[in-house]
Design goal:
The complex is a heterodimer of chains A (366) and B (270). Chain A is an alpha+beta fold. In chain A, 24% of the residues lie in helices and 36% in strands. Chain A folds into two domains: 235 residues, P-loop containing nucleotide triphosphate hydrolases (Rossmann fold, 3-Layer(aba) Sandwich), CATH 3.40.50.300; 125 residues, Nucleic acid-binding proteins (OB fold (Dihydrolipoamide Acetyltransferase, E2P)), CATH 2.40.50. Chain A is built from nine helices and 20 strands. The relative contact order of chain B is 0.14. The chains are: A alpha+beta (366), B mainly alpha (270).
Amino acid sequence: MSENEKAFIQIREISKHFGDVIAVNKVDLDIKKGELFSILGASGSGKTTLLRMMAGLEIPTEGKIFIDGVDMTNVPPYKRPVNIMFQNYALFPHMTVFDNIAYGLKKDGIAKDVIDEKVNKMLALVKLSDYGKRRPNQLSGGQSQRVALARSLIKEPKVLLLDEPLAALDKKLRQSTQFELIDIQEELGVTFVIVTHDQEEAMTLSDRIAVMEEGEFVQIGTPNSIYEHPNSKFVADFIGNINMFDAKVTSSNEQELALACKALGGEIIIQNPGQTIHSTELSVALRPEKVIIDKQQPSDEDHYYVKGVVEDFGYFGNLSIFRVRTSSGDIVQVSKQNRVRIEDTITWEDEVYLSWEQESLIVLDN
Amino acid sequence: MNQRSTFIFTMLCFGFAFLYIPIVLVIIYSFNDSKLVTVWGGWSIRWYMELFSNENILNAALLSFRIAAITATAATIFGTMAGLILARLREFRGRMLFTGMIASPLVMPEVITGLSLLLLFVSLQNFIGWPSQRGMNTITIAHITFSMAYVAVIIQSRLTEVNESLEEAAMDLGAKPARVIWDITLPIILPAMISGWLLAFTLSLDDLVISSFVSGPGATTLPMLIFSKVRLGVSPDINALATILILMVTVGVCIAAWIINRQKESKAIS
């Protein structure tokens, strides 16, 4: 029970059915106080439904939600210590920015001078002090986003729910806003629950990520553990780029796993696989940035390597991405940091050697 | 290309001519000095003077405007309520029935609406003694029943454009559902309510058939009066009356168009 006491938001066996469609299927989740938690999934994975159930906008078909130890399952949204920031911001078009932000305080019957003070402070926090008298239709996308954030934070909620908070912003703005969000979260210490389909956004923003698929969690963990130790082919493929190859188990014991993998040049030994393998067919995955590409044959005996021909390549300035066809006929994607300004560049049709460290390989059970 | 645009221009002229020459003629002939409607006898405002001294016409006009104002207000209230339910309550028992019943006055022939309302009022009078006599009250009730359907449709279509997350956001910020309607929904649909009011007003002002069915002694609306006068032969003062009505309708349409335009502009900015 001690672990349960620590969790600030506890979701137990929660489900939501819309007619015959099961949007969320018996989900359990614990979120700690002050955490920046992301729920990551493709559209239709049930992530927004889960968020709306936390806000009280959707009533669960079954299961319970506790926030700060109190059962919130059937509490209406206007009585929850939770606020939500909508994807489209949902700013009230007939009110000024000031009135939008003040709305929640007015509903609580707070004195006018206190409201004025709080709203002005909040406007300063989101760097919109001069915009109080404007209407929502006179704001840019980034400004609207900050007004929506201010409005949802003004009541000092215990939990702030954010539905795709950055999806409507352009790329440059998204990056700066990401860090602003983190700063504000750190300053106020509010627990953030973010729903997003953008894995980059989830990775940079969150303390922990839950990957959702078809109404269930596939994996929950820190960005690092989800990226480096995906527990399934789905997660490995969903987060970042990855090369995946079929392999057969030739021998397996606790210390060593021997695999036959045609694409990676034959036999592969994996020390301390960390998991017991039951099947004989499995997949070996390798991130593109963990492959070293070189025209010279690697001298290091410990490195695994295969020979191949560059089939395609793209130059992105900071890095280059290669698609290499190996001697076995498989395609391996490789990304390479362009650390040296002037070098003997690798280009189309070049013969190259691909090498990697044994620890870089991820074994995924089918 | 040029040939085609000439053709379109000609069609446009013909179209406008077809629509507006009769109306322009009515306006011109309302200033006709002659007693015969079809013979031009020089300019005068004699028929306007006669119109304003004719108590029957003035009373009928006053009655029509009173009925139209009450109808428009009541129809806007009920129609807005119905529109809110249609647009915002997704599932409830009898939704299909409710939707059908709201829409039915739009397609029902007026004669049938009028007749059924007459039967209703007569049997009500037999059973509960009210309405003791048909007149302004019964006409107003009849007008509300059919014009609120139009308002409901206007409100519903406006509300489907309004993102529901606005109302959810207000609720999330601590407003109870009734408060949300007052604070958020109504201000946003206000322009639609105004155009609904104007539409209900003109529908009521225009109506002849239903009014004729449910009217009683002493309650003669303007269209009823005009119709009965015309049956005895067209007299020139009808032209003057028509001109005044045209002027008022034009002003009403302009106001409605201005409201809708302003709404569109503010949408374009956002």
